[in-house]
Amino acid sequence: MAELKYLLFLGCVIPYRITGYEISARKVLERLGVELVEMPEFNCCGLPIDSVDHDAMLLLAARNLCLAEQQNLNILTLCPGCAGTLRKVNRSLQEDKKLKERVNGHLKEIGMEFQGGKIAVKHLIQALIEDVGIEKVKDAVVKPLTRLKVAEHNGCHILRPAKYVGFDDPENPVLLKQLIEATGAECLDYMYETDCCGAPVIGVNDKIPLYLAGDKLRNIKAVDAQALITVCPFCHMMFDINQPRIERLLSEQFGIPVLHYPQLLGLAMGLTPKELAIDELRVDATKLLDAT
Amino acid sequence: MYEVDSMSERKQANDTRLRREIKMGDLDPDFKREIREVPGIEKIKLCFQCGTCTADCPIARFSEIYSPRKIMRMTQLGMKKKLLSSESLWLCAACFTCVDHCPQGVDIAAVVRALRNMAVKEGIIPDVFKELTDNILKTGYAYRIPELRLKKRVEKGLPPLPKANLEDVSKLFDATAVSKAKMEKR
To answer: CB neighbours of B163 closer than 8 A, spacing ≥ 6?
Structure first.
């Protein structure tokens, strides 16, 4: 019997391109006794159109929150963007009565009402830390990855703005590191660790994000990390899918495999690379797997 | 410095730097009041141009034209036309580092977002945002997920994707300033 149950909010980027994250997260969460319920209906969290129309973002987010309230289940997201947006709106609507009234006025048109205070929104790593607990994660490790040295990249919307979404210290985030170390691997520090990957700008300017992500990859390589661990589909796309493009632009070789955290944890749980969809990664992880 | 910005904007930025001149006729004195009506960004008036936002901005490290400090000052001065038509307005990655670091508590990212919302109302919107909005309206998802990928999900043992309620999405969009018709016309 599952002890923990969440409504899984998958978001748009994961089913579009990053299914390896979903596959590995589902496997790992099942092992940890977490039950995932599918969303009865779905629409984008709203984040991508906040720049177009703030109200449209609020309404899309609020509709998803209403669906979770109807199910009386906390939301679990794999994407920090969705987590950040839904957390922020969940909180703003509870704190700002006028805003709640206005939003509910529109939601009435589709037969919904945001109540507030009923459900929480958690990103995967927050759920692992706060609900599952690091001890339980450690207990599930059967094959400690003690020969691995890796680096982490959190994803901005897990950390900032601290007053709305932060559950870790945005200046010195430690929770993902603790989760990585629970697998037996060592997590290395590197320059500009908390900097953005640049992904949100790629549709407007395709150079800045590549230089920014390239700068991070260079700093990660400088500390001899064997892999980069991410917990965001967007960041993963920047560092993995775009890595060959960055290498061409900068005339540099990185060759850093980029794993979703549940892939790393899954390996330590004794799951096979195939089960964790590690073969779907763009940057070859064979050497890394030899070291596990 | 890498060459990452568009030539015309860089030239413009350089020209302004050299001349350091602002034409009074280009300023809209009501703009600071207009923008302060957007909830959450009232503190823009407290910005004293310390430059922490730009110093800590990862995008500004790579772009010569993107400077949140400058955007805050231009907003205070009421340089509405120049701001709303500026390419640099769309370079913010919304990483929120500036929001956490601003000593005056200005929600800089929210100011940038409010300026973008205003630009959209004036008909200025980068193609990528048009596409995202259109995708959400037509599929509920921000990206067009190809049929093949939906089939592959089943092969991989993943549950089918939750369906969107497009009627609801459309109704919600109608309630906002960016109506369906306006987005499609462009």
So the answer is: A41, A42, B140
Task: Label residue A105 exposed, middle or buried (CB < 10 Å: 0-12, 13-18, 19+).
Answer: exposed
Structure tokens at B54: 């730009």
First to last CA, chain A: 31
* C-beta neighbour count of A255 within 10 angstroms: 12
User: Degrees (nearest 5) of the Cα angle B158, B159, B163?
Assistant: 135
Residue B90, in any domain of the structure:
yes
| B2 is a domain residue | no
Q: What is the ipTM score, two decimals?
A: 0.95
Chain B, nearest residue to A275 by Cα: B156
CATH level 3 topology of A133-290: Rossmann fold (3.40.50)
**Would you write out chain A's pLDDT as a tens digit for each of its 292 residues?**
457 999 999 999 999 999 999 999 999 999 999 999 999 999 999 999 999 999 999 999 999 999 999 999 999 999 999 999 999 999 999 999 999 999 999 999 999 999 999 999 999 999 999 999 999 999 999 999 999 999 999 999 999 999 888 789 999 999 999 999 999 999 999 999 999 999 999 999 999 999 999 999 999 999 999 999 999 999 999 999 999 999 999 999 999 999 999 999 999 999 999 999 999 999 999 999 998 8
**Beta partners for residue A121, in sequence order:** A75
CA distance A111 to chain B (A): 9
Residue of B nearest to A85 (CA): B94
- Whole-model pTM: value is 0.95
| Cβ pair B132:A52 closer than 8 A | yes
CA distance B108 to chain A (A): 11
Q: Are residues B31 and B110 in the same domain?
A: yes
- Contact list in B for residue A110 (CB cut-off 8 A) is 167-168, 171-172
Residues of B in contact with A157 (CB under 8 A): 96
Residue numbers in B near A194 (CB within 8 A): 97
Q: What is the CATH number of domain A4-124?
A: 1.20.1050.140
- B21 CA: distance to closest CA in chain A (Å): 28
Domain region containing B170: 127-185
Q: Are the Cβ atoms of A10 and B162 closer than 8 angstroms?
A: yes
